[in-house]
Structures are given as structure tokens and as C-alpha cells.
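Q: Convert this sequence to C-alpha cells.
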Amino acid sequence: MAQSTPIVPVDVAALVAEAARAAFDGAEGPGPRLVLVPPPGTVVTDGERVRGVLVNLLQNARESIAAAGRGGPDAVEVGARRLAGGRVVLWVQDRGPGVAPGDLPHVFEPYFTT
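A:
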């Protein structure tokens, strides 16, 4: 049985900053700038899973912009906002070239890559 990480209070700002460092630190060549929108407080979650998702999204955004030759002024934005009831919504937004229409049916398949 796979070991799961605990569901505990996690500082959202620290989690976002840690994922951003993991995705952008040590990246080769010029890339997009990273914009962190100040996220709100804490949330009770599996921090390791959320961090993994954020790192993956941020790396994909950085790499897709770089592959399109769109480094420089382009930005990758990551942030969060709190909803009623204490839930938090995280987002990652970039100005990369987007997903090719032929790849759209596969984006939720595990290990799919282009």
C-alpha cells in the first residue's frame, strides 16, 4: 500500500514559493519571469501532492514558453485566492503557445507528453 503524506495545515505562500523555486531555480537560458500573487494564509491539505502539481505546472509553463522562443517579457503567474467556507483556489497562468488542438483529448492522460 502506498504511503500517503499527512493532511495538515499548510502555509499557502510558503508552498507556492517552494514550488516556484523547484521549477525555476537552475533553469538554463533566459526564461519567462515568474509572478507570485500573494496567496492567503493556511489551508488543510496534502502539501506534498499540491507542491508536486504546482512544480509540474510551473515547469511545463516555463518549458513551453522557452520552446516557443518566447523568453524575455513573458510571464508565468501563480497565485491563490480564498473562497467562502475556507477553500483556496490555486492557479498557474502563462502566455505560452497553448496546447495544440490534436493534443487536447490527451491532456489528462497520465504521462502524456509532446
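Helices lie at 12-24, 47-67.
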